[in-house]
Model the fold of this input.
Amino acid sequence: MPAVDPAQLQKAFGSARLEADAIIECQSMCQVFGLAASDLFIRWQTYVINRHGGDAGILPTRERLLEARSMLQQEHDRRASQRQSQTGHTVKLTRNRERTHYDKKSVEGLLQNMVSGSQEPLRTPQSARRVGLLKTNASAVRDRSMASPMSPSVFAEPSPSAIRYSNRTNTGRTEDTLHSELPPQQLPEPRLSLTVHDLAAKSGDTELSSEYESDEDESVSPSAPRAPARRMRYMFEKLGTRTETINRRIERMALDIKSEYEIAALANPTYPHQDAVTAVGRIVNINLDDAAAPISSDTLLLETSRRLGNGRRIPLDVQATPSFSLFPGQIVAVEGKNLKGSEFAVSQFRALPRLPHPAIGDRPDAVEPFDAVVASGPYTLSDNFEYEPLRDLVDHALAAQPSLVLLLGPFVSEAHPMLRDGQSDLMPEEIFSSKISPHLARLREGLLASSAIYLVPSTDELCCPYVSFPQPPLSRELLARVGVPDGVESLSNPAQISVNGVSIAISNIDALFHLVKEEVSRLPVLSDRLPRLAWHLVEQRHFYPLAVPPADCAGILASQDGKLRMLAAPDILITPSQLRQFARMHENVILLNPGHSSKGLFGGTFARLAVRAPKSIDAPSSMLGDSTKIFPAECTSVEIVRI
Done:
């Protein structure tokens, strides 16, 4: 097939300009898979929808095209396998279907040749690209006690993606910035120790542990004796527990709305009303029987609490509503009329009251400067367990010497292709201890004693025994078992901490990716969609406000809903997502998605934060130059950097 003309490729991709290396890759893909330029663009759109949620900001660079090529190759191999099975040939699948099988004599012979320095190349029946290929490494042979001879962690040659990763040219490139105009940060010398508080423990809430407390009815007097903590049982929740949790969320928000707007009484939206009234409820999708049916402005229902509307639901008419941004599970305050008793016509959605968020001068704790490195897993490429991105991230942290390092999981992801397909003999804790703990030890030894390192578990983490959300911190027993050094601590997921007087909220579940598929909006106040999705968490005061998580997502524990509520308005909200990385400020809150440290076969991104002393910032003229009236977000700069 002749090469496709570059002009045809550029025409097919429209406004997305193709660089020279991207055009060469497109021509190669067209030749290999027998595609026309228009067909290739359709495959590209499929890739963007499947891997990036249809994000229009994903450009057809050579790196992205290589990922799309890998997806095309997998689809081609799958169809070839189907055709082979249809011809009558039986395809036998085993746990390691392409692994070479050795007996005792052959293995000992191979090892003997390696130790003796034989230059005869090893010949194995399978391709050299398979993990576990032996190579001449005498030191690895002598250290057989650390791993089995056929383990991927020993004798493994660099994969093609690892070689390509080591030869990348975009390392250190700045992908996004916030407040880059601020003056350079000046940290005191010698460095002061960080002051880190767990806001959940500080507020009197029970510290997260393996024994969660049940989310008791708030009608119980605080002075009444509390029931003893019960073991967390994430597969034994009752339906009544979930409905009671939803009812309390609506009631809690309704009380704050009533107080904020000085409303004498909230109306029942299911009753006819000739005059405009205000009601509070939860947004649900009318397509209750079809979870895959998308939400739209024509399929909205408002669900009431038992006290405000007997738990009934009423269709919403938002045709006359000028602005809104809605999703299933969202608590809203609606103003409008119900003329016939069958539909509530919304004239406007009232802004929800904010949690207390005082300026710097009104806080009990002084805001002191510090800098931080924030990264999210996975930390290794998708075809090996060498953890090259984690190694480079630690190198950067050692060079920058930040006051705080936040490493968010997953560290050993259950979605890793080699684990999912059974291509590794190592257990997850063995991978952690042999590949991750040495980097953590190097990081702890290289940073100042005043610096802090925190790990945050993930719902995708294989080394964490709790697969639901929320999650307690990784236990000290587990950290010691996998070789994590002293001085490296763990936070819960989600976590709410105060660092030198700055409130930081961390939610390590991809709520943004789940919300992007469920949101419907019209001229929203925050027009940038990705930061708007993160703002929903702050506005709803909840780390997972979506009604029903996707089927492939971790279960949301209704009995532990108290651990998912925000206790205070954060200055910085960190919520990693596979969507495009960003750093934005909205209403004095920094919304940050640092991205993932690795993305398939390529390196990812991480974030650098620098909180400055308030007195070093010029306060706006509206504040008469008073730096105590500004917020920590205005003193903080963020830079998202390519690993």
